[in-house]
Amino acid sequence: MATFPVCSAACPPAGLGGCSAGRRPGRRHAGPADPAAQCEGLRVCRHTSPQENKAPLPQTSKQSCRPRWRWCQRAAGVRRVGMNQVAGLDNPIWTALTSVQAPLAETFGALKRFTPAVAPFCAVRHAGDSVAGADGVRAGETVYFVGAFPALPDNWTVVQEAAILQMVYGGEAYAPVGGGAMRVLDEGDFPDVLALTGLVYPEYFRPRTASLGNYIGIHDGGKLVAMAGQRFKPQGYREISAVCTHPGYAGRGYGRQLIGRQVRDIAAEGAIPFLHVGEANPKARALYEKLGFVMRIRIPFLKLVT
């Protein structure tokens, strides 16, 4: 049974505005059933899942696509990803440390963690796993879990337990990229990265966090004034993180520009961007939604001192 594409071949590959023919983005268009033929030049297209279609839908622009399905064009065809069926993102740190970022993992029984100089994040495979005797966590160290929590030893103190929003990119095209000059940050930039994150993003950064790679910055007269990077890297996904701007440069659209660059770079690798944002940060959530991200789940977050 045919599925009807959302965007025509005339849609521009950059920007989130949608179709140059004036059709609303995210709506079904009448036309050929072949997504590759209809969405030439697009990197991410929306289509309904054939499994969800029990009967053909009429070819009309008024029929809305089901937004939880994303079709990603590849040279060999079209790959479908169901956003509500990505179990690995329910426990993103564990998934990252057992796939792409396994070389950065330290393992102590049921506990896995990033090397302390890289990131203060730990994970267990299943909620309630015992981490008693996990000598890889130093006494008095502050660590974080996202997703599954272990059974906590008596000497570990909970500082904060909350839920954060996990958002996955679902735009039809790359986010717009323009404005200030951007460049990839390297080891020579690490002191400036630590200085900037110390101002606006101090809790999660460590001396070697930027070595996770893919950090992009904007400079003004040699001064790093804005940046964004990639942190957790579960197989097939990349988390956009550390989106921050120096307070003296706020309001210039640097965050939007950097997120757009990260979306473009991640899509070029054949992966899907996602990110996390606090429930108490509606301004950031609104920005991410404008850039094409959609909420997937509320995910548990735990900060504790060991």
TrEMBL record:
Residues 180-306 form the N-acetyltransferase domain. The keyword Transferase applies. SUPFAM superfamilies: Acyl-CoA N-acyltransferases (Nat). Coiled coil: none annotated. The keyword Transferase applies. InterPro entries: Acyl_CoA_acyltransferase, GCN5-like_dom, GNAT_dom. One of its GO terms (molecular function) is acyltransferase activity, transferring groups other than amino-acyl groups. Keywords: Transferase. This is GNAT family N-acetyltransferase. It comes from Massilia glaciei.
